[in-house]
Amino acid sequence: MSDEPEAMLIELPEPGAADVGPGEYELAPDRLDLGERLDRFVAMHLPDLSRSYVQQLIERGQVTVDGVARKQRFKVTPGERVRVVVPPSADVGLEPEAIPLSVIYEDDDVLVIDKPAGLVVHPAPGHRHGTLVNAVLHHVPGISVGGVDRPGIVHRLDKDTSGLMVVAKSDRGHQALVAQWNERAVLKEYAVVVAGAVEPEEATIDAPIARDQVQRQRMAVVRGGREAITHFTVAERFAGATLLDVIIDTGRTHQIRVHLAFIGHPVVGDKTYGGGEAGARLAAPRQMLHASRLEFSLPDGVPMSFSAPPPEDVATVVDRLRTETSL
After folding, report:
1. Is the dihedral of CA 205, 305, 153, 146 positive or negative?
2. Where in the chain is the domain with CATH 3.10.290.10?
3. Which end of the chain has the lower number of beta carbons within 10 A, N or C?
């Protein structure tokens, strides 16, 4: 799960940071990257960019190593500085698409939607269609707040995470939302089915997160990583699984998935972080993670609270677990 305010993402990221928009990015190969091809190295560290798009950037001279343009096959070495220039997406253009949206609330400043699993939030270079942004452009014609690449987007959910998101429709809506995210004043609660019996009734996981040093497409709890805080309460216990209510103070990439796997209880259906076996047993079609509650204030200060029940796929898995437990 990733819920980082977009206003913070245009800065040069730490190596391996996701959510890449237009701008310049500086990457530093480490010992695990020794001998890695330049195109593969960049694609691993900036996973929002497809490898084919990275290759296009390299061919155009927009990827340099210590200031020198190199070929795709160039092998990187620790100590080098790799600079990647991602041009504004206006050069490519985003198109409105009539993708259905489940609208929970809407006014002149904000739009609250219940995102289905499988829907990517925003386009990335090389992947321009079929996203929530394309749907928002159709729903709110002419919207441009927050930048041409991600109009209105102030946070995101992973592709296979369902649930509540808020989109800014106006400049004042965008400013108000970003300020609340930066101040950690937004309440973000999730319903999560995890593998195993979670022992404490409630607990807080305070463990820093960064790119996994071995499996570079994953995140992990890493000493020296970015602060990440997750609170959970047991909502229901089953035979071999637990339903949790989870609240996050921070919004690091895959935070909930990483933290719960770290304590030995991966999200059911999450093949990346160890929940695949439990997911297969319960016929979970994706990770059982749903953004169920969202609370923030409108630009005029009025507090708002929204909730969305788990969709059918999550509800079906929970019902299956209840049946198994009662036998």
Report:
1. negative
2. 23-86
3. C
Catalytic one of 3, 39, 114, 158: 158
- For residue 21, give the amino acid letter: G
Percent of all residues in the chain with a pLDDT value above 70, rounded to a whole number = 88
User: Is 158 a catalytic site residue?
Assistant: yes
CATH topology of domain 103-182: Pseudouridine synthase (3.30.2350)
CATH architecture of the region 23-86: Roll (3.10)
Within 10 Å of residue 214's Cβ, how many Cβ atoms? Answer: 8
Question: What's the pLDDT tens digit per position in 260-286?
Answer: 999 999 999 999 999 999 999 999 999
The CATH architecture of the domain made up of 187-326 is 2-Layer Sandwich (3.30)
Record the pTM.
0.79
Q: Is the distance from CB of 35 to CB of 41 less than 8 angstroms?
A: no
279's enclosing H/E stretch is: helix 276-281
